[in-house]
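Hi support team,

I've been running sequence recovery on a batch of backbones for a student project. Most finish fine, but this one hangs at about 90% for roughly twenty minutes before it completes. I'm not sure whether the input is malformed or the queue is just slow. I've pasted the structure tokens below so you can try to reproduce it. Let me know if you need the job ID as well.

Thanks,
M.K.
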């Protein structure tokens, strides 16, 4: 191609010689008016007739706002966001275990030895002292127990923050790492409104129930955690889902708990037992086949507790039992 075939556009280029591209995208298809973007509502509309040409546009900008250059620099980031669930907040570098290069080819024997040494030193740098090793082990326990209990990620983050506070305030001497980690998970679940019973938490932990309750009370008292008493209604959706009950039965169970609350029957009784009894009673009232043994297995409580509580709940709502 010769130099004469190459056309460049400068400021002196006439309007007729400029390429006509995306003309249809900048002109209203109805009245031919000029289109403008409304970033607040995510719409493209005509400035003349108000026709909405496009809606639900994607905002490619950051999710945060900055009002000066220093704030913009402090908030800007690359890579994955930081997380409290890792001892280094996810800012370290991980060296993969595969002995392959970027093209998928196997490394030589000398290169494999070199990568193994790098992994060893990288692991040593990630946990430079006993405090970081403690935190790494505890956060691994929190993630394992949260996965076994089916807890969402916000509960795991809260549990990690609680454990970090306990570690920074030197509350761990005389107590096991597993005990404080388990107590943190139990407290975080109750704070988030997705509580798990002590028996459920103890089942997935490596400590006994006595140590769990003792450590939990100590952590809550020393850190001044605001943990409200567990509400029986918060257990009902999970129990009803595990038993395969209908929405009608779940709603009836909530009404039974509300009637018992109005009569003052919730005070001094286990919320897990009340929730299990309400689910069983609601299933009976809705003619859904559920046995006390099924509810007992799901709620991890005895059948005797269910029998005692469900009669009290039915009497509170005015249902006569045989």
């Amino acid at each position: 191609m010769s130099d004469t075939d190459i056309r460049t556009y400068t400021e002196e280029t006439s309007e007729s010689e400029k390429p006509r591209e995306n003309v249809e995208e900048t002109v209203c298809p109805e009245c031919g008016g000029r289109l403008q973007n409304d970033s607040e509502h995510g719409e493209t509309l005509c400035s003349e007739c108000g026709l909405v040409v496009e809606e639900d546009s994607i905002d490619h900008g950051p999710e945060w706002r900055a009002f000066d250059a220093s704030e913009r620099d402090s908030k800007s980031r690359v890579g994955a966001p930081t997380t409290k669930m890792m001892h280094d907040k996810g800012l370290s570098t991980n060296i993969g275990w595969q002995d392959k290069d970027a093209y998928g080819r196997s490394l030589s024997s000398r290169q494999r030895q070199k990568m193994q040494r790098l992994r060893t030193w990288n692991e040593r740098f990630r946990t430079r002292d006993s405090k970081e090793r403690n935190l790494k082990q505890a956060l691994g326990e929190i993630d394992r127990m949260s996965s076994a209990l089916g807890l969402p990620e916000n509960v795991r983050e809260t549990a990690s923050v609680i454990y970090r506070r306990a570690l920074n305030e030197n509350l761990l001497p005389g107590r096991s790492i597993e005990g404080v980690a388990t107590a943190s998970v139990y407290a975080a679940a109750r704070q988030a409104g997705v509580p798990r019973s002590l028996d459920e938490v103890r089942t997935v932990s490596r400590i006994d129930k006595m140590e769990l309750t003792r450590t939990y009370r100590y952590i809550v008292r020393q850190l001044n955690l605001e943990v409200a008493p567990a509400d029986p209604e918060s257990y009902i959706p999970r129990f009803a889902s595990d038993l395969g009950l209908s929405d009608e039965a779940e709603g009836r169970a909530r009404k039974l708990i509300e009637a018992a609350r109005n009569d003052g029957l919730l005070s001094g009784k286990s919320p897990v037992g009340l929730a299990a009894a309400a689910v069983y009673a609601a299933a009976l009232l809705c003619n859904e086949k559920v046995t006390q043994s099924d509810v007992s297995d799901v709620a991890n409580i005895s059948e005797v507790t269910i029998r005692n509580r469900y009669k009290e709940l039915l009497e509170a709502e005015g249902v006569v039992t045989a």
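--
Follow-up from support: It reproduced on our side and the slowdown came from queue contention, not your input. The radius of gyration is 31 Å. No action needed from you.
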